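Hi R.,

As promised, here are both runs. First protein below:
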Amino acid sequence: PPQFAAMYVPSSRRRWLLSQTVAVPMSLKYAPRTLDFVFGPQAMTPDYPIAGGGMAGLRPAHYYATVTDFVAIGDTLPPYEARYGAIGVPVGVIFGTADRVLDYRINGLAMAEKLRDVEIETLDGIGHMPQFVAPERVEAFVRKIAGRAFV
């Protein structure tokens, strides 16, 4: 999404410099807006910063690794996608239909065409963080897929 355009920093030297200087202060400054976008339309859960690991993202090394992954995904994801058909275990994908980060139709439903044994579940009105805002439903889904995998 355009909201993450600032994370596209192709130069590893520049990523490192940003990670060691302004990345953490800027992350703190924009945290309310970022978290609203990522969690929306639901509110961030009160336990996310500590129990959910949100504060762990406020480390220079985390910024550097995340931005490095963001830059690399354009080159690294297509070879992985090409091998989806080789996956021999049940796969479960869960998406919120109101996810602002990943569109469930593009990033979820399209997987049904690429995987033999995939179950896709959508949670109506839920955003990008169902594991925090609908944990019971996510747990039930994980248990269901695990049950299929370990029969």
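And here is the second one, sequence first, then its structure tokens:
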Amino acid sequence: MRRVLLIFVMLMAGISSTAQASRVVTDETGRKVTVPDHPHRVICLVPSITDTVFALGSGDDVVAVSDYTTYPAAALKKPSIGSLVKPSVETILSFHPDLVVGSSIPGSTETATQLKAVGVPVYLVDPQGLSGILRSVKSVGQALNRVPQAAALDASLSRRIAAVKARTAGKPAPRVLVPVWYDPIITIGKHAFISEIVEVAGAKSVTDDLIPDWPQISMETVIARAPEALLLIRGGKLSIDMLRKQPGWSSLPAIQNDKVYYVDNGIQEPSPVAIDALEELAKEFHP
């Protein structure tokens, strides 16, 4: 009986979305997606998409979000469709979405394939770096049919990024380590989104030459690079007190001088809230 009901819900979802659809757009992965003129039952598969959709003024149209959604506060009132890696397709269909928006991470792409089979449109973005945030704002704006709002948001975010660059230009860049965890030691690499935020905010990650996004390094490597400061997520799981208790960490200049910068966890989201974190960091690095 449950399986029959699920198939019925899937079919009804497909019929509903097809009946309302009237525009064909190309998402950031190159997929052609037929979307409604004015989506009013939107599901966001990842937290960064939720932030972008709300920033575009479509928060009232969001019927569900993913686990770990933090921004904006209003999104916390929305029900969840499950994890980022494996959201519940059954739960998604129970909300009868007319548009599902996700990113190019494996969980979203696999979900997109399943939903496409029953006619539910899924639009995917692939935000890489600050330029990727701006591009995705415009892309999601197109999918939501909020092009003027997207243009205005893009212009506003661009001005804020330019202002931070002007503020930090020519100033000495503190050498910072961004520890994600201590056992094993995981940090940020050259192509990690956070590395670009740190650089634009006026500092230098001591691991910005490492190729992996999230490299695992030894304590010897950390000591050799002698970071002047640490950058931690405010209220995160990793604290300076935890690091002081680990072998080797107390020898670092950053620990000895008690030099720690803190930033909101919005720095982890490739969405408009990351620009808030960028501005905050620039003030931290260069008061």
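A quick note on the second one: The radius of gyration is 21 Å. Let me know what you think.

Best,
J.
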